[in-house]
Structure formats: structure tokens, C-alpha cells
User: Which sequence fits this backbone?
């Protein structure tokens, strides 16, 4: 727990910088940093980091060899020459404390039909302490928290007494390859904090996620003779139903899982995108469904994939057309392991102390039914990965919004954590 | 039935022009005259008609006021300024016989995945008497039949003794508004022949067709919290199932229909195009399904539409989300009545005589579970609409192909019909 004087100085600094932080976050939310379009946003951040005097490494994912690494997810339809990553290094002349990675993602998920938003999705309108916007909550407010936590130290006349890497990555929402690229590029530290919007809880364990594309081919005919054709759209629904059934079985097994046994249906299956057919009066020749399914921590990806393959193959065998024209399952995107932050780590204890000092409450743990980037650090590189950040609403939904009072307190908690974990020196 | 000498002269003429007809049809098949892209094909035809000395009226659908007329179908997403229609008038100085409309459509339906074709879809490869190609069968070969039937008369030194209109239209595969536009523009005759590929049968009765779009809106959330969101893709599937159930009920009733009682399931429902969702890990906020459903001749469109609306509303009421966010049904495309060619018309008798003379068999009637353009002439303008044409395979399917020996005989049968119906004069 930080000493009272340091905490007071940091609180004063966060206060002093608050208007600037809110304006910075608004600027950040205005970038429609959808997948493949994060470049301008990352360029702007790289300049903001450089202006702070930090050493900036800006690169694109196509420059990093990483498809041999554990945790890598395959991709289609995406140009990694456009996927800009930013790592700022804040070096301490002497390593008196423990080094730290602060990491946040700037990629956002599609906003859906704009007319279902109260305010436009990239208009960071502030009302009653909430800031609107796709990505405002997940997780641009967290990015602002880690940046302005560092700023708070400096405003308080302090600097970390160990190296800190401030990283903004992409691909968190689809592969995690942005996070992986920083590790492939060699960035290491004694701990990693990712301020995803956890409402000031620590993520104890999260499920893994796999993306896959179901691809069905049918024989189109004039619908007047539809009895001789196979409708690929209806066939695809048969496959969806088979994976729904598998999901129910997995959730049945989850009742014995050490972490997820008390969570209702922790493994979610989502047919998220569908497209098929070319003409109303032709039986559709093709249908593709982009799907997401969870897996429990401890289940090997290979096993989870095999279960999906078996479910799809079983459904296809029961269909007169698909039995001879087997559908494809294409692993395209997340192949993400679940991850458990084992209780008792030094980094968690220090974070819990900072949380307690700022909020006056014990830091609670949460179980996540979605994935986050901490798995890369914890599972594959032995770096404790802490997922802890501010509160808000509507991740991936309409009217997503960040809760500014929570963000302000969280910024202070992270500043206190940095001060405690890394130690401080005069700036 | 034409006299033997005229028939012999016409047969000789069809023979003499045959190579030219096949080459012309190949040129016609090379045009990818998909909806909205028929312009170049129609321009080429207009020039081919003008070269024959015919008077050509070339216009686009946006120039014709017709949305007040019976049989008009509403359209979305289509630019009628691109929808070129061609009407060639072959005037007889004196009306000694009966006037005639020869009409064919040049629009083709999408070819689907090209890799499922043996030959490329717009490559009119000829093998063993069959010509490959999207539209080769439905119905560019019929267009060639009507044009070269007229050419045969001329080659035989004859001309029709009454006005003949040779028309190539678009929109047959989606609305019929091309055919309707010719009537709105004032073209009338004592009969109309449309050489759709009927394998030398006459279409006695055909079902009607309606197109509609099912549009579902859902509330997207992060799939980690999917229990609080509604998946629009799955909701759309519930609506599809409801219309499948309705279709089964309609087909049950069809067992009492005067024409369709012996046809198994004459009313077809086809979800033909689907699209929905934006992201694998967001519950999809929207899904649209473009559908086609038949209706029996005699069923008013209004009643058929109401049944669809009731089925969809019933399914929505049973769904906790859709009950409060009702799905939309958008009538977009075909609102086409069924049509029965009452037996005993003069025009049919003359066509049957020509068929008998050429094929040596009695002309058989067929019942159509798809729609054709004859309905406009017969139902709304009192012009007998004959649908009779050559044989082939694969309408709307892969490896569509025209059967050239059938085309040649059909061209002669149509020439004989023209000669008998219109009478002849020296060219």
C-alpha cells in the first residue's frame, strides 16, 4: 500500500490532470479504430507518447514473425501491414524496483446499426458522468487510465524506479496477436497490468475463445424445382443447432470446473455473422457463418476444436446433401486459451493494496466469460498478468459508455500501483 | 397448321440460318446480363434489331410510369435508369392477319460460386449438342428462337401479314416490371408468345410468386454476457421456420386446387439470401433474409401477404425479444399473381397446330411452380399469353445448358406459328 503522502500527491496530480485526461479520452474515442483501421489512432498515440519524452517503438504486425509461437491465432481477410502497434519505453536509470508492462488495446468492435445509438457511436458525448462511444468503455478509458497514471507520477514529481513499457495494441477483439507481437519483439517485465473495464475487480480466471467459420455449399436450382436442390442457408442452421447442443454439453461439464462451477453456462456459443445465397428465387448455393465459442481454462484448444469438428461432422452425416458434400470448419481468428491468475502473486497483492488505499474496500475477484490479453503474459512467458480497470457499460453493445468517476479513481489506483510495484525516484 | 409448302420453306430457312443462330446465341450468352447490368446486352440486341430494318424503341424503366398498374412489383436497391428495354416493331402495311407480341427476357440470375461450374458461366461452350451458360437455357435460347423464327420467314421470302412486336425485356426474374412497362407504353396485340424453356409444352397454369425481406433487429452485447442479448440470426431462423410451417399448410390446401391438386407441394418457400451481424464476438444486432414464396392461381396477393404477415407476427409473439421489437416484412420484388391459360383459345389452337406439324406429336400442357411474364398479358390486358419454348437444363443452377436440337425444332415451330397466326405476305 502506498504511503499516505505519496497517495495524496498522486491524487492531487490526477485531479490536476483530470480535464486533460477527459479531453484526451474524447479524442481517443473519436477514432473509429475498427479492425484494420487502427492506424491513425495508433499514430496519434505514438505522437502523444513521444511528446512525453518516452522512447517509442511503432511497428506493424506484418513485421513480426510470430505464427510459430504459442497463442498465435490464424487470420484471413486482414492486412497486417495496416495493424500498427505502439510500445513506449520509460527507462529507469537504475532498476531499483520491479519492471512493469502497462498494456491496453485500441481496437473496437463494429458499432452495428447507427440508428440504434442514442448518440452517434464515435461522438464522446458526456452526460451525468458517463462518456458515450464505441470503445469508450472497452477499453479506451483503460488506456487513458494507464497513460494518465504515468502522468500523475510525473506531475507529483516522481518517476518509476524500474523500466515501464506503455503499450497500445490491436487485435485484442479477434486474435490477441497484437499482444503476442510485443512478446515476440522481446518486451518483458516483472508484471503486466491490463486495465480492461472490470469495474475494479481482478479477473481471477477467464474462459478461452475460439473463432471458426462454418462453410456450407449447396446445389442451387430454380426454386420451382426446389425438391432437387439443397438450401445452404437451412443446412447452415442445422450445423448451428449441432454446436448449440455441444455447448449445452460443455456447460453441463462446467459444473465440475474448479473456477466456473458456480457460473451459469460459462461457455457461450455465438453465431455472430452470417451471409449466404445470391438470389431470392434460387436455392442458395453457399452459406458462411462466423462463430465464436468459449472453452474452459484447462481444456486444451486441440480438444475443444475436435469437439466442434465432431459436432459438425455428426450433423452433416445426418443430412442427405452434406453427407456427400461435407461442410468446412475454418479456424479464423481467436484460438485463445483460458487463463487463471493463481491467487497469491506478489503483483496481485500490491495491486490489492493500491485498490484498498483508493477505494477503501477489499479488491474483489471476478470470473470472465470472455477473453483478455493477460493470458499471453501469464501462460506463455511467466509474467503475472493482472486484468483490472474502471467501470462502464455496454461493451460490444449500443450506447456503450464509460463511467468517468470510476475512471478517475481507477487512474489513481493504477498510479498508486505503479508507485508501489516499481518504486519511485524523483522525476 | 401451316401448309406443307410453307413449312418446308421455313424449315429450309431455319436450316440455312442455323449456324448464324448458334453464333448469335453464343454472343448473347457471353453478356453477363445480371440484374442492373443488362444494358450492354440490350444495346447489342437493339442494334441487331435495327440491322434487320425493324423499328426499335429502346427505353429504360425509369422513363415509364407504371407503379399504379396491376401487376407492378415494388423495388429497392435497384436503379431503373440502367434497366434498358427493347421493343422492335415489324409493321405490316395492311393488317390481314392477327397481330402478335413475341417477348423474351435477357436478365439472368446470379451464377453462384464459379468453381462449381464445369465451364465458366458466361462461356457458351458447345458439347454434344448442348450449349453451356448462365441464361443459355433460361431464356436466351428462347430469345434466339423468336428472332430467328422471324428471320426464317424473311429468308423464305415471307413477312407477317399483321404487326409483330419483338420485345426483349428485363426484370422477369425479380419483378416482371420489364414486361409491364411494354404494356404501360402501349404495346398491344392479338396474342403474345413467350418462348421460355418449357421443353415444347404449353404452360397451362403457373403459381404466383412473392418476394419479401424478413428484417430482424436484436440487441448486441458482448457475447460474454449473451444471456442479456438477443441473437438476430437465431431469431430470423425462428421466422423462417414459421413460414415453412405456413407453406406446408398452403400445400395441404393445394390438394383441392383445380389445377395443382396432383402436384406435390406446388407452393415453394425459399429463404434465398441471408446476411446478418458484424462481428463474431458480438451477438448479431440485425439479420435480413430475402425470401420467395409461391401462391396458387386464384389466391389474391393481398390474402397471401396477410398469411405471411400473420405467420411472422405469430412467431414474433412467441419470442421474448421480438414481441417488443417486431420484425419487419418488406415486400421487395415479385408481387406476381398466378395465371391460368384457359384451354380453348384460338392462339393456343394455332400454336398446337404448329407444334404438331413440326414435332408430329400433340402439344402437352404443363403446370408451372414458377412464374413467367405471360400473366401480365392474360390477366390485366386480355391478351392470350402463350408460354412455349425449347428444352434444356439447369435454370438458376450450375451447368445450365440449352439443348440445341430442341432449339432448332422450336425455332421452326415458332416460325410456323407466326406464319399461321399472322398470316403471310411476300417479303
Assistant:
Amino acid at each position: 500500500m502506498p504511503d499516505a503522502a505519496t497517495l495524496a500527491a498522486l491524487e492531487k496530480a490526477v485531479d490536476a490532470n483530470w480535464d486533460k485526461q477527459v479531453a484526451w479520452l474524447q479524442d481517443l474515442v473519436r477514432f473509429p479504430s475498427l479492425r484494420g483501421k487502427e492506424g491513425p489512432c495508433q499514430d496519434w498515440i505514438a505522437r502523444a507518447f513521444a511528446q512525453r519524452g518516452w522512447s517509442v517503438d511503432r511497428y506493424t504486425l506484418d513485421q513480426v514473425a510470430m505464427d510459430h509461437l504459442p497463442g498465435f491465432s490464424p487470420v484471413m481477410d486482414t492486412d497486417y501491414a495496416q495493424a500498427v502497434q505502439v510500445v513506449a519505453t520509460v527507462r529507469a536509470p537504475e532498476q531499483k524496483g520491479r519492471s512493469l508492462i502497462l498494456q491496453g488495446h485500441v481496437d473496437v468492435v463494429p458499432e452495428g446499426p447507427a440508428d440504434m445509438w442514442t448518440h452517434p457511436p464515435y461522438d464522446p458525448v458526456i452526460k451525468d458522468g458517463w462518456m458515450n462511444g464505441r470503445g469508450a468503455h472497452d477499453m479506451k478509458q483503460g488506456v487513458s487510465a494507464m497513460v494518465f497514471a504515468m502522468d500523475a507520477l510525473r506531475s507529483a514529481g516522481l518517476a518509476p524506479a524500474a523500466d515501464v513499457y506503455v503499450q497500445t495494441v490491436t487485435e485484442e477483439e479477434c486474435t490477441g496477436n497484437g499482444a503476442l507481437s510485443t512478446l515476440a519483439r522481446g518486451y518483458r517485465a516483472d508484471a503486466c497490468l491490463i486495465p480492461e473495464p472490470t469495474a475494479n475487480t481482478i479477473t481471477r480466471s477467464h474462459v478461452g475463445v475460439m473463432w471458426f467459420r462454418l462453410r456450407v455449399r449447396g446445389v442451387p436450382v430454380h426454386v420451382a424445382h426446389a425438391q432437387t436442390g439443397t438450401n445452404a442457408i437451412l443446412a447452415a442452421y442445422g450445423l448451428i443447432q449441432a454446436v448449440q447442443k455441444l455447448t449445452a454439453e460443455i456447460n453441463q461439464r462446467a459444473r465440475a470446473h474448479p473456477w466456473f462451477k458456480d457460473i451459469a453456462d460459462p461457455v457461450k456459443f455465438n453465431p455472430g455473422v452470417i451471409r449466404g445465397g445470391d438470389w431470392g428465387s434460387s436455392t442458395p448455393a453457399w452459406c458462411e457463418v462466423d462463430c465464436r465459442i468459449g472453452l474452459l481454462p484447462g481444456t486444451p484448444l486441440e480438444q475443444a476444436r475436435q469437439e466442434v469438428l465432431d459436432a459438425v461432422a455428426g450433423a452433416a452425416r445426418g443430412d442427405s446433401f452434406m453427407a456427400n458434400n461435407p461442410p468446412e470448419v475454418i479456424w479464423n481468428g481467436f484460438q485463445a486459451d483460458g487463463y487463471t491468475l493463481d491467487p497469491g502473486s506478489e503483483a496481485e497483492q500490491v495491486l490489492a493494496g493500491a485498490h484498498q488505499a483508493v477505494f477503501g474496500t477489499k479488491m474483489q475477484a471476478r470470473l470472465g466469460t470472455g477473453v483478455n490479453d493477460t493470458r499471453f503474459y501469464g501462460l506463455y512467458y511467466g509474467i503475472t498478468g493482472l486484468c483490472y480497470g474502471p467501470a462502464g457499460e455496454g461493451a460490444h453493445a449500443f450506447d456503450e459508455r464509460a463511467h468517468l468517476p470510476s475512471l478517475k479513481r481507477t487512474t489513481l489506483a493504477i498510479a498508486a500501483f505503479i508507485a508501489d510495484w516499481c518504486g519511485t525516484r524523483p522525476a
